Write a sequence for this structure.
């Protein structure tokens, strides 16, 4: 055994021996801050409670109420439609902006900064700013954003796209810059035109970035809360079968609103939160599996 290898082993042995001790504080924080609240949340979804100490077991009653709530069902379909539109719009625009900015263009660094800046603004602030902008435009037509569900839905799409496109653009730029120039040169030598190079060479090699951006836009769309609260607050509202339904309310805002109805609905809100977690986890894992499979094929 060489002296270098032997010296390396001498260094690694104490590191391996003491590694669990250094990892312990982080693991404890993870258990206290995530695992325990998560398990407690699942338990509370089967209870009626005002505070956790007052929890009384009611079985599946909360889940039955959650699925019977027309507002929750409406929020699910709103969120599903919003997620589909946002994923397509944000990723397509972010990719082509990134593609344009990786070409030889004067001032590309400035453009990247400008496109990224909206991501630095908080969601609540953006919601109120865009609410004033939309209402200022719609005032000319004697209406306002929260008076029409269609206006509210597309207003939310525009707001979120404006905020997130710059962030996704940075990820796509990193993916585009990692493509070998030799590969692009080989495509040109073989006679590939710009469109063929884009879809046959560039897009397949940017699949890791597509995987990341699709995952982020999918989870962000389903978890969206502060922009929804600030922009429309779920309005407009209608009455259906004796229940109030907020037409632009997404799932996260619906859970928040359910919790604040009265203390008898705290357990129902918790049950909705558990269903929400399962839904997002399944969709995110399915998306990851689908896009990563394409990475391997490429």
């Amino acid at each position: 055994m060489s002296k270098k290898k032997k010296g390396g082993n001498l260094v690694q042995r104490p590191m391996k021996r003491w590694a669990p001790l250094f990892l312990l504080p982080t693991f404890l924080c993870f258990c206290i801050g995530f695992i325990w609240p998560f398990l407690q949340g699942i338990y509370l979804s089967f209870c009626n409670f005002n505070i956790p100490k007052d929890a009384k077991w009611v079985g599946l009653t909360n889940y039955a109420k959650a699925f019977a709530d027309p507002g929750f069902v409406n929020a699910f379909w709103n969120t599903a439609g919003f997620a589909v539109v946002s994923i397509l719009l944000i990723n397509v625009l972010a990719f082509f902006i990134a593609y344009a900015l990786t070409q030889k263009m004067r001032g590309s660094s400035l453009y990247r900064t400008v496109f990224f800046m909206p991501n630095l603004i908080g969601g609540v602030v953006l919601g109120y700013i865009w609410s004033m902008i939309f209402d200022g435009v719609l005032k000319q037509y004697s209406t306002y954003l929260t008076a029409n569900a269609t206006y509210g839905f597309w207003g939310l799409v525009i707001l979120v796209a404006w905020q997130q496109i710059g962030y996704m653009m940075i990820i796509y730029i990193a993916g585009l810059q990692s493509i070998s120039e030799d590969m692009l040169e080989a495509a040109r030598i073989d006679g590939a035109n710009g469109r063929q190079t884009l879809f046959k060479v560039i897009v397949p090699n940017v699949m890791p970035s597509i995987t990341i951006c699709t995952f982020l836009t999918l989870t962000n769309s389903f978890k969206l809360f502060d922009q929804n609260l600030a922009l429309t607050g779920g309005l407009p509202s209608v009455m259906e079968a004796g229940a109030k339904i907020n037409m632009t309310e997404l799932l996260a805002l619906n859970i928040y609103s359910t919790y604040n109805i009265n203390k008898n609905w705290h357990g129902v809100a918790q049950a909705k939160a558990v269903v929400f977690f399962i839904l997002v986890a399944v969709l995110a894992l399915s998306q990851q599996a689908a896009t990563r499979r394409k990475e391997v094929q490429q």
User: Anything to note?
Assistant: The radius of gyration is 25 Å. The chain has a mean pLDDT of 90. DSSP finds twelve helices and four strands in the chain. The first strand starts at residue 47 and ends at 48.
